[in-house]
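Listing S7. Sequence submitted for prediction.
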Amino acid sequence: MLTLTQVWGALLIFVLCPLLGALPLTAWWLTLLTRQASPQPWHREISIATAFIEGNQLVGSLAWLTEVAKGVGTVWLARHYFPTDPGWEIIALMALVMGRYWRSHTVGTTSLIGGAFAHSPVVAGLSFLVGFLGFTLFREKQQGQLLVLGLFTLMTALSNPNGMRILLTASLCALIGWIYQKMPEELDQPNPATRLESRRLFGFFRSDRALLALQKRLDKDQVGAKAASLSQLLGWGYPVPTGYVLPAGDDPAMLLEITQPSPQAPVIARSSIVGDRPALSSSAGQYPASANLTSPEALYAAMNQCFRAYSQASALQYRRDRDLPEGSLAVIVQQQVQGLCSGVAFSRDPFTGEGDAVVIEALLGPATFVTAGQRSPERWQVTLQPADRPEDIQSPDSWRLPEALTLDVKGSGETPQRLLQEVAFLARHLEQRCAGIPQNIEWSFDGDRLWLLQSRPIIPVEGDRRQRTQPQLPTTDQPTASLAEGTSRLHALPICPGAATGKVSVLKALRQPQALPLDTILVVPFLKASDLPAFAQMPINGLIAETGGQLSNGAIATREYGIPTIVMNQRRDRLQSGQRIHLDSTLGIVDLL
């Protein structure tokens, strides 16, 4: 039977504890001590991590103390009115959690930890110790949370076998577990300050696994070949933008908090395929990348798009065609380079993987202008002799072009020749570092620094499709398409060597295979890499693109599929649907029959 005092105490618990849980004390400290408005709406909780980053050590420390005080004060309030019934302390903590969830849809982990230790230091200490050890071994947030909640209930039952107290403890833990499943906890709330590379990591239990930074050596079996390669390049000292990797199935909340893209600090999201074999299949352009992401919402949507792309029809067909195993996908999130001039470089001939020339395609702007193939780039050749190589490729900054070294450059355009020489030296340096395997690199120059965005092996054209003489690689100062008066021959840029005869079909959109006649030579606006798996299933003898270069993702894919291909960015109007032609894509010649 409750006394009148205890009735009043119960009323206070059911009224004050939810209100205490709902109070945004951390946001108030941040506003009061930094004189800035809260970076979150009023109904969202400000994490302690945000208090440290947005404010300072004083703000963060006061936020932590007040959150702990919420839990301790709740338990002491119940203990004051019900000194002999610890069950009311559990009820008070439940009221605190409900108030927090009502206002911000979070748990208030820090307050709960304080309250748990005030309620039973021994039970809470043992539960968190065992849970911490389990999380350290397995790094699984969900399992770690459930382990702590289960241990807290179990140890409560063992220390005090009171049926009602056990039931109340189990109810509290079930409530917390339900909220964890519904919403991220308080430390998972995003924070809009500071750049990606300077983020501090808060909250050991915030992600399903430890956040994977590219600065660490990563396992390709966990994060895919692209992410593992980038981490290796960073470890070797190459100028790769910093970033993180999110494996499939991991909680993105911690990555969103750490990166926090903004217009001042945009990021890029790219796919990394687990089970990919870059030396045999590049996967160039088969999976989407999203650049210039300037908000957490945009980044979250881009990551979801990357994960969904793994199951799209073109990706499935590509993996079947290239005999790649089915695995999973990870997402790479990196600082976005604001490229003034960017492009692609092959450390050797893109057809044969041989020769002394580094082949470069470049445009003003980001690297996607070249890789997408929707613009015709400047084309360059930079020759490096064996004597131009550095003696010690493992020394710091040995990838930088020595000031005294000048390399022979062929081509014309707006790209500075010294920059082209630096790119060529970097590409050949990477080849040396990768055991002499010719490399295909993406690069970008932001006006101050040359960045390496990606590096993967060159996949030469299959031997039975090579000619006895290596194909000439035109540079910008050579004509890419011409028609001599009184003749029936056109010249264009070779993309994939081979020969084909058939009827021209000019398409602006992909059609079903049955819509094309046999022996079709398809004319497309540009070579979209993700279209190649479908093209390979059609009765297509050859491809003619209106724009693009030899090093775009689409061009790489055509060479992997072995489809004779050229780019004809001039005089394409001489080709009409139904016209019969012979295509020599090794020399870049079209004969009108």
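Caption to Listing S7: primary sequence and predicted structure tokens for the chain studied. The longest helix spans residues 57-81. The domain at 207-335 is CATH 3.30.1490.20 (Dna Ligase; domain 1).
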